[in-house]
Design goal:
4 copies of one chain form a homotetramer. The first copy, chain A, is of the alpha/beta class. In chain A, about 35% of the residues lie in helices and about 20% in strands. Chain A has 12 helices and 14 strands. The first copy, chain A, has a 7-stranded parallel beta sheet with strand order 3-2-1-4-5-7-6, with helices on both faces. In chain A, strands 9-10-8-11-14-13-12 form a 7-stranded mixed beta sheet. In chain A, helix 1 (about 10-20) packs across helix 12 (about 325-340). Chain A starts with a strand and ends in a 15-residue tail after the last helix. Chains A and B meet through strand 8, helix 9, strand 9, strand 10 and strand 11 of A and strand 8, helix 9, strand 9, strand 10 and strand 11 of B.
């Protein structure tokens, strides 16, 4: 099968290309880029010289030639491509926020300032977090065309860390869950700007968009989807740290009952919750998640801890923002849709450095 | 006056030396080191070549020759030097934890595993956080000898961020305050170890000693000292990030009443609280503290924010862990004790990079 | 086939494990470690959790169970293992310097301070730089047992950059070739030390062992092997830079005749020289090699340039010191010895970040 | 005296502001910026909040109000300001290349693509490398108005390392001196671009503008000025490394006669050459210069070494590109011009980290 990537020259697009090029079920790539149309991909990413010998064509050519299409575009411009894929009867996996909110156009509009051009497309779109929606993704695909809204990077790490606590009713009623996240700089994308200019961000840490980041509503929606009870409130503070990749999230979940003597039980609950997941690793009690344990891989590492009174569950998750937080998860979604081995193309073992 | 530094070759000691060498009221340094006794300081720190031409002598010689003594030693070994200084009638400023807990030997023993050798010394020691204890530091000094327990790095940033909220009764009763801190690697000291080996910590973020760090009891004690009400509970999570210096603390303080329409009032309260402080900068509303705004300086920057429901006050503080978090604050204490301009020797303007 | 790694817990050993675990022809790993014998590999490298579920056994067990053995040990301790492999009739690929010098014990002794315990082993060992010795490696293997001395990291990048110039007689007679190299910190290994302690090496660059590094005789020997003329003199200056991986070498080769109007010819000569090499990429004229173009891959990128008078050929090479500079090249040697596809297990596409 | 800075919001300008604010002879700053005119300096550089409370005015107002003017502007736009200062009779210190080439307009034009608007201004301008031109700077100032062309960053480090060898005739006749330099990212200035975007340059090293950098003619001119013999040819290769500040230059100078037994003599010659220089430190034989030994200071550290045949002198210099390589040297020039203590305002002790 040939895979297409619309928007192949942004960081998420290029990571997709890199992963897809090594995917055993994919035997060709068709790539588009508005900024570099007419050039060759390896001229834009010379690290991939001799490996990705593809011209950058128009998006329409991608859709026409590919058996599955990924879009790694800015928010709000992907709908026409989704429509074209549906009409052609092929899956469309969108890495932007456009299809993450299903028919909740109000939330999308409130946070992204755009309206839906083709509202009916969104009704059938599925939010592509396999650990939440694997069955829906499979069913959708069985019906022919499929639109996947691939999750945001922060929501992936936050959701996977909190899901078991919500699903098993560990969180106190009306709890506020605090999500304190630290991201590497590649999360800001390829476009140069003051904030990501080396001397302005190297050797320094700072929060940004405190509890006002666009990923907050996505996290809240995910939490609500995982609990029968009222969804918890959240406070979400993203930070920037001087590293290329990775998101570490430290999350504070007030417990319904103190964990005294129950730490092992709660750990077992987490382990059990994810025992069949190929890309979630619940670390042994005592270990602590770190971004350099998942570097260049599709893993989400989860470690669980307790405050000294054991009244709060502290969950730490680590992902590679470019892989499980973007391109890797998109390929995982393709694998599910297409009936491939879910690990196919995603066997990368994390690099400590 | 001549200043002495016992333990001059650790990172905090060397930073003290660097600051004291530029201090207008200090005209000589006497330095000791157990590890490098007999060598010259500039052989251990060749960055200071031609600037600090001092032999490394015994601690006893430091006390004998100096008019004020700083100790930058491991925890639990400074008491005899404190005693000698008291007997000689000169001030002793200790950068270890030994004199941070006053007569509360139980807490010190519980967290540092040591007993007091000379309990009476601790009765007269003052915790050297000028923003909390300036008057006590002054009074102490007026009585002749003075022992200062210089604060820990994390407690400095955490305390300064939370004090106004506590002093003004903003925090909800029985609130749990979450302190999520990120530290540069120099906080781990000069001794090589796996955790601080470049390839193990570069380009990665991880928490450590989750809610079990020795600085937790110090923070709690500080909070208790600032409020007439019951001290709040805290959860403290330190993280390591790949930067040389700096501590950023993001703190979550549940408010007694929502801040809706009161953000400006609360900001004014913070500004007012610190208006006379030479080294605390309350940033304008909308600005966000970052470690590269205080680099190489004695400032603590504070920015205040609110969660989207305005039910939680989010305070961010940034300090240079080696300066306001250690050596700079020690010099600030000397300035107070000795009646110098409190800014003397500490006029460094932060370096963005 | 099962592969064994003696000394699996150093950085080169662990990188070998990571690569071998994804190798299509290897279906099992047997790992040893003196430091961590009895523990599990994934406890030492938790980044590989759930992927490398291997106990750390004795070296003897590795040799007994494996069909090929890699050793990633300190210099001077591998000979007995090489002997055992030869006796068992299986290949031994040594990542230390022990078998890099063939029967030139004098040079080995002069630079590594050790004598050969089993001199006869060295007679049959081959220096494992495939671009120099592929045929000898193949022939050796055909004879049954094989001992490979896997090249040093600096010599790999330096040799590949200079070989075509020597082979084609471009260098001026009696030229001195200057090799100015910059290495990432992982080159220093896993053992913590002052030099590689984060605050001592982050955000700084420095040379070390100026023209006295142990890799100098290895480079000189390689140069001599590639030219029928007198081997050129070299000056080799390694530097440390604050990055995890990578070696960049900038090399200055005085030309026998000015290149004026011959740049394209020389570039074509380089391209031709390496046209069949799977892991050498000669960049287009105008492009410049950089370590982030080969990160996490087995490539050696080469760019060629000229000084303004065109009297000196300036060659820049970039490798990942852990891959082409160590573990990847070892696997490449295995592939040649065993008749596998030379690219097997080494298909990693470089990661820009 | 009041000092003015035209172009105060670029990195060099801001560093000037930071240094001048602590200068004992300067009691006021007048700052201009085209990009941020009308704003306050501390809004652009919030790290300097509460320290630099200056509005950003027009360049004309700076000249009108100041007793000395610094310009930190792009190349080719400073002449009118220089003219205005001359007419007003005050010194003008230019950090761009505009006045580095004296009346050699041909070279300036060839490398910077601009012509002189006021050629006569250049006749009286002095190249502000105090170690080369201190007397001329002094004399110039005595004549009233003075125009200083402050040196480029690379030429400063390269020149100081090679001067003694040239002045004392150590270099072989017709030698080619190779200058291999590594710079931190701040050298690229404040304007965001792909090359200095964090994920593109972090954790990587690469050369650029190989032997074609604009600083080459400046270096050659400096070398020629220091020797009565024919100026040596040079090859200059700048590299970018992932650090905020610093330039390390490793230089290869073929010796007229081998240094065998003469290392101490040559070292003494270097030491003697700079014995009266306040900001040049010739390290003891055996020590090696590193950028973290001069960080945040005005020092140029020099270490000398020899290749194994002792036929080439290898000189390593380290400077902070923002201080000795730009703003600090400009202040040093001011000190000379104005008859201040040459160390005034430049007493910063290097920070190891």
């Amino acid at each position: 099968m040939k895979a297409g990537v619309i928007g192949a020259t942004g960081y998420a697009g290029a990571e997709l290309v890199r992963i897809l090029a090594g995917h055993p079920e994919i035997d060709g790539l068709i790539l588009s880029s508005v900024s570099f149309e007419g050039e060759h991909f390896e001229d834009v990413y010379p690290n991939m010289l001799e490996r990705i010998c593809a011209p950058l064509v128009k998006a329409e050519e991608v859709i026409s030639a590919a058996g599955i299409v990924f879009a790694a575009l800015p928010h709000g411009v992907g709908e026409p491509y989704a429509k074209a894929c549906v009409e052609k009867g092929i899956p469309f996996i969108d890495l932007s926020a456009d299809f993450r909110f299903g028919d909740d156009e109000i939330t999308f509009n409130a946070w992204y300032g755009k309206s839906y051009q083709y509202p009916e497309l969104h009704k059938n779109a599925v939010y592509g977090l396999p650990e939440l929606n694997r069955n829906r993704i499979r069913e959708l695909a069985a019906g022919g065309a499929a639109i996947i809204g691939n999750p945001g990077c922060y929501p992936t790490g936050a959701s996977l860390g909190v899901f078991p606590a919500l699903a098993k009713g560990l969180a106190a009623a009306s709890a506020t869950i605090i999500i304190d996240s630290v991201s590497g700089i590649s999360g800001g994308g390829r476009e140069p700007s003051r904030s990501f200019h080396y001397p302005e961000c190297a050797d320094s840490v700072t929060p940004y968009k405190i509890d006002s980041h666009r990923h907050r509503p996505e996290i809240m929606r995910n939490f609500a989807a995982m609990t029968a009870a009222a969804a918890p409130e959240i406070i979400f503070t993203p930070h920037l740290a001087p590293m290329n990749r990775g998101i570490l999230s430290t999350m504070y979940i007030p417990l319904a009952a103190p964990a005294r003597d129950h730490a092992a039980t709660i750990h077992a609950l987490y382990t059990d919750f994810y025992h069949a997941e190929p890309f979630v690793r619940v670390l042994p009690l005592g270990a602590i998640a770190a971004t350099n344990r998942v570097r260049q891989s599709n893993y989400c590492d989860i470690s669980i801890h307790f405050d000294h009174r054991e009244s709060t569950l502290i969950v730490v998750t680590a992902i590679d923002n470019m892989v499980k937080g973007a391109a890797g998860q998109a390929v995982q979604n393709m694998n599910i849709i297409c009936g491939f081995n879910e690990r196919a193309g995603l066997e990368m073992i994390p690099a400590l450095f």
